[in-house]
Specification:
This protein is mostly beta strands and 407 residues long. The protein has helices at 22-36, 63-69, 119-125, 175-182, 319-322, 387-393; strands at 17-18, 43-49, 52-58, 79-81, 85-86, 90-96, 99-105, 108-114, 147-151, 154-161, 164-171, 191-193, 205-209, 211-222, 226-235, 239-243, 248-259, 262-275, 280-287, 298-299, 302-303, 307-315, 344-346, 355-358, 361-367, 378-382, 396-404. It contains 6 helices and 27 strands.
Amino acid sequence: MTSESTVVRLKRTVRYIPATVIVLLCILSLFTSSVFAGASDEYNVVINDNGREMTITTEETEPLEILNEANLTIGSSDRLSIAGFEAGKGGTIVIDRLNTINIKIGDEIKTFGVYADTVGEAFEELGLSTEKCVMDYDTAALVENGMVITIVNIKTITVNADGATVTKTVFGGTVEDALALEGIILGADDYTEPALDTELEDGMEISVFRVTYETVEKTETIKYSTETKTDDSLEIGTTQVEVEGENGEKNVTYRIKYVNGEEASKETLSETITKEPVTEVKTVGTKAADVTPNGVTSYGGYTLGQSIGGKYTHYCMCAKCCGKSNGITASGRKVYTGMPDPYYIACNWLPMGSVISVNGVNYTVVDRGGGGLSSAGRIDIFTPGGHQAALHAGTGKCTITFVRFGW
């Protein structure tokens, strides 16, 4: 600090009392007048007025009278310390004034109240860093009430917080400094992107993520499983349920994490089964007329007698449909236009010789096709009536039941 009468700056670690309390000292002086009655000699008192020091020679013993003699007044929000003052002997009376400073960043001006003596101390009091800040005042400059401090090295940033998006001009610092300037306070679990210690850059976008947790108890259904058996004495498509399936129940306690009000994760804290599920047991028939079984009961995750949804198209033996016109299928079986319907299909997802029931009609896999026939349920049905008949038969959805896997 600089001094108007000396160059000495006193470091203060003092006890502050409001200026209004000093009035009580005047009342107490009625009871202590005898103590100071003999202190009529002049003595020196140093007054530190918000970093500016002056020395006054006085005979007064009351702090307020000494300030009045120095033509100094105390505002209601100012703070006064007389810890370093002794009536009749001297010392220092310290005044900390509440001053208003204005910080201008770009076209925006923010106003703050500070007790600091210097610009650097004011920024520290406000929780703002001056490490990379370029301004029109030196950090050692004394605070003047109403002063405007202009930040020169401004950057434009965007802050997304609490449902609002604000574009700001700021000086150099970190994400944490930018949030402090906006008065944004983070909770214990909140976080930002980029991180708080990231240096600000022009055009940077800062997002604040509010994190909350909730503990929830729920009653949930445990779906029963199904055990399937095959029976070659039952006609294909026939299903017999031996044991009815029944869902179970459980009580589950979750800890749910919300980020900006939306569920981000869920952790299971406890789980108690209150009702065990009952497994359904059923038997499906695999016996098909004119189909000789080969003993293979499953293939590719499918079992005999199982039904799935499918999609069919139709083709003929012409070059347009097959890329050739000799009628030789991938299995070696020969087809031709006008032949009795052999009930053949092409597909890439079942073994050759497999038999499937398509809407109740049995077809044998004897041919392959393009990549589209590799998807489960996709089949191409041979049409002996020729190309126009195949076009007329068209496409559609069907139910496919597995009768045999392979020859």
